Amino acid sequence: MSDVSIPSSRPARSGSDAADRAEPRALRTRVAVLDAVRTALAEVPLSELTVAEICRRAGIHRVTFYGHWPDVDAAAADALAEVIDGIAAVDDAAITEADDAAGLAELYETALADQLAELAAHREMYRSMAQSPLFGRKLRETLGRRAQLAIDALGRAGVEVPGAASGIAAAQLSGGVAAASLAWLASEAADAADDPAAVAAAQRDMLAQLPTWWPRDRA
Asked: Which of 33, 38, 100, 114 is 20 to 30 A from 14 (CA-CA)?
């Protein structure tokens, strides 16, 4: 399995957020551990990954690890959720330069295709993580934040989104995308996803399920 995609310069997000923001050393430790987890998961199954191996790769003591995460599952959920978060991010400059709401929507639709490609490229690893309720929660939280940012941008472009202010729209949108992504990941279709056409087909199926307020090219 090839190395997992690791987006650069992402904000730290975890149960240890407060400590990470308060102390640069804690943030450096977090980055080192999550990078080590991602690299390790590209080489060994989650079930075989140990705290000792993560600490060896990250160059830290076990006590330091447990100061941030209770177990391997929690660290792995953080590590892979951060990958998805980085892929789901849409560049601020691209948002500013978008001509209209349809152009904005296209940016987020492209990000969705990139997320599916990441899941397919490392499908055995993500399939293993999909069994973790913690990873499912992290994925929904990550996509929920990104969905709210997308809804805010579309609102500024003139799209009326019911439930935008309450967070209901973002929860509905991101929950559907997360569930559909994991369902596709578990299917035989994902095994053929080395073919870009398979990812494109999955993206089309998911876009067809988007709410009526989502901008579409109706020409």
From this structure: 114
For 92-127, the DSSP string reads: HHHHHH--SHHHHHHHHHHHHHHHHHHHHHTHHHHH
Q: What is the pTM of this model?
A: 0.82
Q: Could you give the CA distance from residue 154 to residue 117 in angstroms, rounded to a whole number?
A: 25
Q: Mean pLDDT per segment of 10 residues, for the chain of length 219 residues?
A: 44 45 78 94 91 97 95 95 95 93 96 94 90 92 96 96 97 96 91 83 96 81
Q: At the fourth CATH level, which superfamily is domain 17-77?
A: Homeodomain-like (1.10.10.60)
Spatial distance between the Cα atoms of 66 and 68, rounded to a whole number of angstroms: 5
Contact 13, 30 (CB under 8 A): no
Would residue 66 be called left, alpha or beta, if left means φ above 0 and alpha means ψ between -120 and 50 degrees?
alpha
Q: Name, in order, each residue with C-beta under 8 angstroms of 190's C-beta and a sequence gap of 6 or more.
A: 119, 120, 123, 184, 198, 202
How large is the angle between the packed helices 72-88 and 133-156, nearest 10 degrees?
20
